[in-house]
Amino acid sequence: MKTIRKLIEVMRQKMPLKSLRLRIFAIVLVAGLVPGLIVGVGIVQNYEDRAVEHRISTVQNQLKIVANHLISNDYMANYRSEEQTYRNSRDVVDAELEMLSNLYEGRVMIINSNFKVVKDTYGISQGKIMISEEVIKCFQGENLSNYDPEHGYIEMTTPIMDTTANAGEQEVVKGVMLTSISNGSIVAMMEMLNRRVMIIETLLALAIVTLAIILSVMMTRPFNRITQAIMDVNAGYSDASISVPDYAETVHIVDAFNQLLARMRALDQSRQEFVANVSHELKTPMTSVKVLADSLLVEQDVPAQLYREFMEDIVSEIDRENKIITDLLALVKMDKKVQDLNITSLNINDLVELILKRLRPIARKKDVEVVFESMRPVVAEVDEVKMTLIMTNLVENAIKYNKEHGWIKVELDADHQYFTFTVSDSGIGIPEDSLAHICERFYRVDKSHSREIGGTGLGLSITKSAVLMHRGTLTINSVEGEGSSFVVKIPLNYIVS
Ligand code: ADP
């Protein structure tokens, strides 16, 4: 009992109710056992029907022969006659009847047309009247048989026909033979058959259970391998791609997992790169500050003018550090959820005017002319702070990377769905191979030049994130040495996902 309980417990652990293994096991078991059981029951049942049928027809044939003898010996008419010839022929027929009833462990009764029992091999009902539905039907010429498995006998009626009637004359039923025989031999045979079927079915069940266990374990093994491989990756033993090519399904799962793994690796790498870049970018101004301060400390009697110059440099480095930190914070904010957007309906023309008003003095310093061309009044649902950041960054870049006496053209247009904000410049342009990377964090075409003019390499990255948060697009066109154009396309109505 204990071992069975233990076995069930182990099975439950290995095959929880929802497991595929259990389902395969159950399906194989049912598919294997049910037909076997049905066939087994069918064989026994079929044997019983056939055996009863066969027994009835054999006995009926014998009875017909005896019936003929009854007629030929005129048994029905002379059953009481004491004449020697009649007695002899009656004894012959009686012996036949006796033999028949012994052979089939049964009882035969001969009933004459007055429903009187003229012969009963049991000797009980002789001389009595026997009227039953079967007997009456038999007198009308019907052969009836009835199997009663509960009481273990087969009952049948056989008409005794007058075969001596001439051709053309109607055959007359002179009497009826009412026979009941035991089904003992059929039952014995069926018991043996049942035993055999049971043995075969037990062996079959054992084979099917073994097959079900083997199949369920084998068919689910690839899934275990996937789980193990994923666990290995999770635990850090391996970071190689998984391969379990056993089924099309496992290939799909593994493909999806490998894609996820590749994405996570790329994310991890970009995070590492980002951390390395941030550290490097933050370290550079600090190194400059330290070099400047050290040289002031080492020198003795430093003239006040030099002190001032160095201090100015230190302040500008600190400003730079500050700008990097501000930009980084802005970037982190962009990475947050879209819910952080503060969407309001805004007059974009006014916003552009305001931004250009702030930036024009800086452009003027570089002798860059800024032109604003508005095709139509535009009102859109945007986040004002982020929109200001987008526009300021693009116009600032156009000033920073412009040539002397250059120009900037800012255009604002809209259709019924989107508004477009375009900043074109006559600046230094962007090399073709850099165009794809221009929006990456800390990417700068010319690092030293960008640093010189106070760039952090984060501006376009921030801009792109802000545009995407508005479900817009940023398109960049540029020819190196000739100029660039940045096109921002944003839906007029904010699309809530
Ligand atoms: P930065 O702070 O260095 O300007 P950005 O992310 O704004 O960083 O820009 C990334 C790089 O893209 C810049 O360093 C510069 O090389 C290039 N760039 C951006 N805007 C322009 C432009 N209008 N013309 C030419 N180059 C540009």
Pick out its properties:
alpha+beta, Beta-Lactamase, Helix Hairpins, five-stranded antiparallel beta sheet, 58% helix, 17% strand
| Spatial strand sequence of the major β-sheet | 2-1-5-4-3
Rg over CA atoms, rounded to whole Å, is: 54 Å
**Which hetero ligands occur in this complex?**
adenosine-5'-diphosphate
CATH architecture of the largest domain: 2-Layer Sandwich
Helix content: 55-70%
Mean pLDDT: 88
Q: Please, how many domains?
A: 3
N to C succession of SSEs: HHHHEEHEEEHHHEHEEHEEHHHEE
Number of helices: 13
Q: Look at the helices and sheets and give the structural class.
A: alpha+beta
Weakly predicted, low-confidence segments: none
Task: Please tell me about this protein's structure.
- It is built from 13 helices and twelve strands.
- The protein has helices at 2-14, 20-72, 75-78, 84-103, 133-139, 184-235, 248-298, 304-335, 348-365, 384-400, 432-435, 447-452, 459-469, and strands at 106-112, 117-120, 144-148, 153-161, 173-182, 343-347, 369-374, 379-383, 407-414, 418-425, 473-479, 483-491.
- It has a five-stranded antiparallel beta sheet with strand order 2-1-5-4-3, sandwiched between helices.
- A hairpin with a 4-residue loop joins strand 1 (106-112) and strand 2.
- Helix 2 (20-72) runs antiparallel to helix 6 (184-235) and helix 8 runs parallel beside helix 13 (459-469).
- The mean pLDDT is 88.
- Adenosine-5'-diphosphate binds at residues 393, 397-398, 401, 425, 427-430, 438, 443-446, 450, 455-461, 484.
